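Researcher: Let's do a round of design. I'm pasting the structure tokens now; please hold your answer until I've finished.
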């Protein structure tokens, strides 16, 4: 019989973190995340998400006492509908019986918070790892994207969860020539004397990321599920991203002296940590540093991209987006990237999907957000 426990002790938290490592130990596409980073992400004293959210972690144990599943249940009070809507996340299970037991526990906890509808997976918020992988199991997930068992989707649907939104991950083959029409559009933007493009100033990263998130918040404000990041979350992000940000891959574009768009691409850390088994000790940190700073990675991911609303739907706005991606493509070639993933894009964000397809991106993976009424 499966026993589900609240992960309120050090041992249970360790089990919670290690569950996917047990379940995917024979899956060559799974990437074990760094234990140190996962502990910080789940620590209410260190992750500012918990300043505006209530959260409970659960671990499932089999009769032998082995951890065989996990789930989180959370209510993000930063969201507009937080009085009615909560979330599940971090979902992993050895089988359908375990998955069902975890969902029951998470739903019951959310009901206790007065929640009437649950959506997910969010691990932990919509600004973290979002959605369940439903297409694209033939390769490893990129940095800050998740992996899953192919059967999870059908099991959720059998339990009454319905699709509410798909998230698209596009792949850009860096070795391929950039489409001529897209390059012409990018040149149209850069020939405009009012348009300027520059690198992020890493010496003033906190301030620069505040500008990036201001652009992001404006560009994404009308999108489904949008929740702005707090100042504390932006600072937390700056601290975590600082070792990874390359100014050549982090750009801001302006029109007439006013910021109009931005793009941030990062090397694929998942590629660099794949064989470290979750630990940087004793010599893992040296390997990671060498792989990121000396050898480089073969892949990267565009983690943030946006064009301010005033330019969206205009010829100039499309040209600005093309110019930013052209730059990433050109720098990616110089850094010997083979592929760059642009993710994630809401399925109903047709304009952005069209731009990405216009510049040569191809749909590579799909992640699904589900919802269920629990009142």
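Researcher: That's everything. Go ahead.
Model: Designed sequence:
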């Amino acid at each position: 019989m499966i026993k589900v426990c609240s992960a309120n002790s050090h041992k249970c938290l360790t089990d919670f973190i290690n569950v996917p490592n047990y379940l995917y130990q024979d899956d060559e596409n799974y990437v074990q995340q760094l234990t140190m980073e996962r502990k910080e992400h789940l620590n209410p004293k260190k992750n500012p998400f918990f300043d505006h959210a209530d959260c409970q972690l659960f671990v499932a144990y089999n009769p032998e006492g082995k951890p065989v599943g996990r789930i989180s249940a959370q209510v993000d009070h930063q969201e507009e509908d937080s009085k009615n809507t909560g979330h599940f996340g971090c979902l992993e299970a050895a089988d359908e019986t375990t998955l069902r037991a975890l969902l029951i526990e998470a739903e019951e906890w959310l009901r206790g918070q007065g929640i009437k509808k649950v959506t997910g997976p969010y691990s932990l918020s919509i600004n973290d790892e979002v959605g369940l992988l439903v297409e694209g199991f033939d390769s490893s997930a990129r940095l800050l994207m998740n992996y899953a068992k192919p059967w999870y989707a059908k099991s959720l649907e059998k339990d009454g969860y319905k699709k509410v939104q798909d998230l698209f991950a596009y792949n850009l083959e860096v070795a391929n020539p950039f489409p001529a029409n897209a390059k012409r559009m990018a040149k149209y933007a850069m020939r405009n004397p009012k348009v300027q493009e520059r690198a992020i100033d890493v010496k003033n990263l906190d301030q620069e990321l505040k500008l990036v998130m201001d652009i992001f918040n404006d560009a994404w404000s009308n999108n489904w599920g949008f929740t702005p990041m707090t100042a504390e979350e932006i600072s937390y992000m700056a601290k975590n991203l600082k070792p990874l940000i390359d100014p050549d891959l982090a750009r801001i574009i302006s029109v007439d002296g006013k910021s109009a768009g931005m793009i941030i691409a990062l090397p694929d850390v998942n590629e660099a940590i794949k064989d470290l088994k979750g630990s940087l000790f004793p010599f893992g940190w040296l390997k990671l540093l060498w792989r990121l700073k000396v050898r480089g990675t073969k892949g990267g991911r565009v983690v943030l991209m946006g064009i301010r609303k005033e330019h969206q739907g205009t010829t100039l706005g499309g040209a600005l987006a093309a110019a930013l991606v052209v730059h990433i493509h050109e720098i990616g070639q110089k850094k010997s990237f083979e592929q760059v993933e642009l993710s994630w894009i809401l399925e109903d964000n047709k304009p952005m999907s069209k731009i990405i397809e216009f510049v040569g991106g191809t749909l590579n993976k799909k992640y699904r957000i589900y919802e269920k009424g629990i009142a």
